[in-house]
Amino acid sequence: MTGGDWVLFAPMRMEARALRRGLPAGAPLRRTGRGLTRAGRSAVRHRDARALVVAGIAGGLTPTLRPGDVVVATEVRRADQPDEPPVPCPTAPLVAATLRRRGLTVHLGPVVTSRRLVDGADRARLAATGALAVDTESAALLASAAGRPVICVRVVADVPPQRLYRPLTWRRVRAALRTLPKVAPALVEWAEASTVREIVLAAPRSFCAGVERAISVVEQALDRYGPPVYVRKQIVHNVHVIADLQQRGAVFVDELTEIPDGAVTVFSAHGVAPSVRVAAADRGLPVIDATCPLVTKVHSEARRFVGRGNTVLLIGHAGHEETEGTLGEAPGQITLVENVTDAERIEVTDPDRVSYLVQTTLAVDEVAGVLDVLRRRFPALTGPSSDDICYATTNRQAALREVAAAADVVLVVGSANSSNSRRLVEVTERGGIPAYLVDDVGDVDLRWLAGRRTIGVTAGASAPPRLVDETVAALAGLGAHAVREHTTRTEDVHFTLPKEIRTP
């Protein structure tokens, strides 16, 4: 096994037997015996273990739990020593996500260790502290963890308001024991991933000025006009941003026909075709335009090139809102070129009058290959006076290339429909380093990290910084001795807000 010198503690014989059914041969399962005293002695015997896992059954403390539910501890506390600092379990979100992918019902929260079984008023007292489950060993087993990777997973056997000592209790215990073999493989995956020694953050990362401006437009529109505020398409491509704004009262629609008459309407950061502006004006919709100024620049260039009578080639991806908006500046007069193959095949009426534009969120090296072909085929090709690719896209790709060169694997925080986030994955993979796109820490698969020592982390321009912070905190719990930031450039770009919501 690649997990190395880790140990899995199972307090009781029946727990150990159930876990063994889900473990590979040779897994370091150790039965500790029940209670704090035996657990403490077992912890001393394994003081040199690299990573510690505790698994077994427990009593539930809240009626929201059900027998057979799994509690992954975010921290482990001593019930009889409330002033003693709890043992943190920062990797809990990673393990919880792994168990959920296995079809289990999982809860994240504190686990408390008591000297004896608790029932009735004692349960209520412990539940009032915020704990989800109670056992009689975990705190002693993990007390001397001293910075080592730790995880505690307990399957709920009984829950209030049912009393503990009833004939049905044993039936519930058996049900919990049947869940433990399903838990065991996730614990092995965690152990094999607890080899991380360094996390390197690429900088810049996360929000760019255009994204910050677009989100602020919606937030301030909600503050000024009150909900609902309607947004055509996603304001930016990130599921967490969208969910947060929806909770505040933003309504996201695909077409203007879904917007009621007179409702405040926001155009997304990706821009819209002139036909959309005309349709909104015809209906008298009060519009606030959150189009990124760099996208607006591409639209202006499109109108300028078409006005010269040039054939305009737009390097971009079909179906993306930004390309659809740019193509809409001159329907039938701008041709989309998605890749080198398209560049080789495209035909133009007058090779001496050809211009190109670029979707702002593409990869620099991806565009370079297409431009090489276009310049070879059309020597008179002209382009914009300055690079169309967004400064933030370029900066994030450049930073990640340097980080990836020193990493074993890279995680890119961003949503699947985020073009700039997907390009970050592709840039890394073209450099020969495995890379994965994750919406948040819950998408991280522990198997990607097995045996890895250095993890590179970045985020697309539409991903909130807090998602990176949460992901790094969980990864650090896998044994990282250092979290460092690698900065290639400092960004100080700021875009003013539209006049409709600008503070006087």
UniProtKB/TrEMBL annotation:
(2E)-4-hydroxy-3-methylbut-2-enyl diphosphate binds at H237, H270, H320, T360, S418, S419, N420, S462. InterPro entries: LytB/IspH, Nucleoside_phosphorylase_d, Nucleoside_phosphorylase_sf. Binds 1 [4Fe-4S] cluster per subunit. Its EC number is 1.17.7.4. Residues 42-162 form the Nucleoside phosphorylase domain. [4Fe-4S] cluster binds at C208, C292, C390. Isopentenyl diphosphate binds at H237, H270, H320, S418, S419, N420, S462. Keywords: 4Fe-4S, Iron, Iron-sulfur, Isoprene biosynthesis, Metal-binding, Oxidoreductase. Dimethylallyl diphosphate binds at H237, H270, H320, S418, S419, N420, S462. GO terms for molecular function: 4-hydroxy-3-methylbut-2-enyl diphosphate reductase activity. It is an enzyme of class 1 (oxidoreductase). It catalyses: isopentenyl diphosphate + 2 oxidized [2Fe-2S]-[ferredoxin] + H2O = (2E)-4-hydroxy-3-methylbut-2-enyl diphosphate + 2 reduced [2Fe-2S]-[ferredoxin] + 2 H(+); dimethylallyl diphosphate + 2 oxidized [2Fe-2S]-[ferredoxin] + H2O = (2E)-4-hydroxy-3-methylbut-2-enyl diphosphate + 2 reduced [2Fe-2S]-[ferredoxin] + 2 H(+). Its cofactor is [4Fe-4S] cluster. Pfam families: LYTB, PNP_UDP_1. Pathway: Isoprenoid biosynthesis; isopentenyl diphosphate biosynthesis via DXP pathway; isopentenyl diphosphate from 1-deoxy-D-xylulose 5-phosphate: step 6/6; Isoprenoid biosynthesis; dimethylallyl diphosphate biosynthesis; dimethylallyl diphosphate from (2E)-4-hydroxy-3-methylbutenyl diphosphate: step 1/1. The keyword Metal-binding applies. The active site is at E322 (proton donor). Catalyzes the conversion of 1-hydroxy-2-methyl-2-(E)-butenyl 4-diphosphate (HMBPP) into a mixture of isopentenyl diphosphate (IPP) and dimethylallyl diphosphate (DMAPP). Acts in the terminal step of the DOXP/MEP pathway for isoprenoid precursor biosynthesis. Belongs to the IspH family. This is 4-hydroxy-3-methylbut-2-enyl diphosphate reductase. It comes from Plantactinospora sonchi.
